[in-house]
Fold each of these.
Amino acid sequence: MRYRKRLEIVADILGAVGDGAKKTKIMYFANLSYKLLEKYLNKTVDAGLVSFDNGHYEVTEKGQVFLERFSNFSSRYSRLERELEAASFEREVLERMCELVVSERNDSRV
Amino acid sequence: MRYRKRLEIVADILGAVGDGAKKTKIMYFANLSYKLLEKYLNKTVDAGLVSFDNGHYEVTEKGQVFLERFSNFSSRYSRLERELEAASFEREVLERMCELVVSERNDSRV
């Protein structure tokens, strides 16, 4: 599994909280160890992205805004990564065009 | 002056050669030292981007293709760099949304 970045973990937690959930469900759907869940779930509460009341978590309005912005950011970033890869391929083509042309051996000379 | 990359130097030389030129003109328009010009001009000739005949340089068909591809690549790359900068700003906004919300001090309690 590839390493998830901080923002992705937060977004996964918010996605798992959804319309409301308890800790076990969040841990399961966000696919996190208990230790990481504890760390990040508390962070989302402290940041006001998730509200906590009597064992029940809910995504706040700020959390919804975060999720929407993150989703936009994430797809935009993936597109940029693909475009950069294509550009890097094009750079290689150009680099190759600058390389010495090795003339084909003219066997008719033999 | 910012550092010019290899491909840019080649493109600048090809631009300076234009419809045909002698070494002094190329050096002047490509804004290169004599040493760098020697190195890169020979490269462009060896790569078949520029032809050389009796002190006179000309951009070959391959050179024209290179120039066009490089120009496309260059503007595409600049756009990607700007978009990446914007994405990195958006990432910062998202990061800040995950930070601890410091509640405003409620002076009415005093």
Amino acid sequence: MSSRDLIHATYRLRADRDEARRLARFIAYEQTVELPERLVTDPALLRDVVGQVESVEPADDGCFAARIAFDAGLASGQLAQLVNLVYGNVSMYPGIRLQALELPGSLLARFAGPGFGIAGLRALLGVHDRPLLATAVKPRGLAVEALSKLAHDFALGGGDIVKDDQNLVDPDFDAFRRRVEAIAAAVARANARTGGRTLYFPHLSARHEDLHRHAAFVREAGLRGVLLCPHVLGFDTARAVAQAHGLVHMAHPALSGALTQAGDNGIEFGLAMGTLLRLAGADISVFVAPGGRFRFSEAQATRLAQACTEPLGALAPAFPCPAGGMDITKFPHLCQRYGRETVFLVGGALQAHDPDFARATAAYREAIERCTVVGHPT
Amino acid sequence: MSSRDLIHATYRLRADRDEARRLARFIAYEQTVELPERLVTDPALLRDVVGQVESVEPADDGCFAARIAFDAGLASGQLAQLVNLVYGNVSMYPGIRLQALELPGSLLARFAGPGFGIAGLRALLGVHDRPLLATAVKPRGLAVEALSKLAHDFALGGGDIVKDDQNLVDPDFDAFRRRVEAIAAAVARANARTGGRTLYFPHLSARHEDLHRHAAFVREAGLRGVLLCPHVLGFDTARAVAQAHGLVHMAHPALSGALTQAGDNGIEFGLAMGTLLRLAGADISVFVAPGGRFRFSEAQATRLAQACTEPLGALAPAFPCPAGGMDITKFPHLCQRYGRETVFLVGGALQAHDPDFARATAAYREAIERCTVVGHPT
């Protein structure tokens, strides 16, 4: 297979060695020709279409790791078909987890990737030397005036990005327009006062038919980005909407646990929330930080941050964005942990820190500035 | 909360009683205001936005079931936001599985549901008194002529629906158009010969920007439906594409295992593959039959078939479509098991049955007709 471009997918198999070998062959057939081995005799199919089991080796926790090569053409240059090819049917089979993916340059070249990436977002903000501070406008149910005041005060306090909570969804376009205009105006007022460039990213969630209308309005309102839930909307839908309107794509992890949480099924954390999201054009990947109210491990967070920034063809790196349980006292550690190329998303902890939200924001911003961090996590 | 329309969501919690009570409150806050309890003091928020824990009761296998009521307005009449509301963030929390969903009529009325449903699809086919027989054109890599011959012979043998394999994705629109035209013409030739009405459903997978172009072409080519992977494309994207072009929506389960497979996480099988897919407009829900190469239980299959056909507002029932491991000898049992309102999807077993694919199809069609089945499974 040496002359062809290949996708190498590694699966973690909950099985003994014999069963792992059987499962590896099963994956190679199931994900391509989807026929039993005995029905596939055509040499061209066996050579060009059926996956090739490259190795089956012992892995952690008594499992085995199977590395399988697929012809890159089988992904048809599409994100949906790539996901389908590497994990579509076998997602339904117990004990098969997609652990790693190596994609050839020819396939990666079909994806524009993050439209802004770390450098582009820093250029928008004019901030180059420190991690970024973000917050969420919430909760849903608060009057537009109160939401606007939160956003305003965050900008006043020197925060970088204020986004809608992912539950902040309006009943219709007019309500969305009114709310977004009010919050955008509040942020603009604060920016005018401080000379800052705080960005406001509304949450885009609408019936499929209305997504582009919402996105176009956001851009026309002079805003530069949106919050999207790619695991809910579909990776490629999220990609296309942000890309078509030149908007920063801040990816929220809602529903991602379905892919990542089961230890023996699903898709590895960094792959699902880093690599695949960069293919989906995410500039920022929000994830739940270890130590917060969700139980993620330090290793998962490290892997995700790596996947956001490691080389991936010509695709720009994205910001990893840990969220949850970010108390101000933890910042020296957090900055050390994640390094400079990070967006810290602080929600409840910021609202709880000081009844004056601008003052709370300033305190967090200062905590971030106090960390003398280098470019890379230690 | 009696005067409002409520969504009742039931979660299965892997926890002891105290932890289950704590988790239930956590869900009620996390999925709505997404703030710690102590930060939410506004009586209007507590009354109208925060979820209400209705009960926490012992469930199977030492787990607890928590029933939580959400204001139906929080779903904003959107499928994406409904999924987000009932399972977005808590998908990332270990030990929380969405087990059941009761949706009020006012919310269900926002969804058109299956555009054809069981009655509409039967009307297209002119078949009213027996289960339907479907197959997949595969494998990928076969020349268009060979794929066309399979489809032709299936129609000749009296099959009802021939769909593309979900791995059958073309490099670009022109290749898609040529392939679909060839297969459609082959089916039309066979139909002309038999006087039958075998339907051909191409697989629609394209970059988001191209989905409508592909769908429009399918409809213009005189075809009546498509195969879609809603778990890959996004539920609402799949819904919108089929609906906009008046196409039957046959839903393939690729990637669904991410939602359904983990016992202590994810979304219950019937809910993910029945209820939510009907909201996504699926007319047929393909799933892996018990006894095949995937390990699904009879109970899961029963629950899915129920969810496809049970009352759900004014939404039409959808066909459950078991697939995999469907040997001809099992048909008396299968017909008995699933009842008349079923599409049986036979792939490899049909190709293996007889080298003459028309004869193989006729044999399977006859096996289905021989089953004297009533409307409901026993």
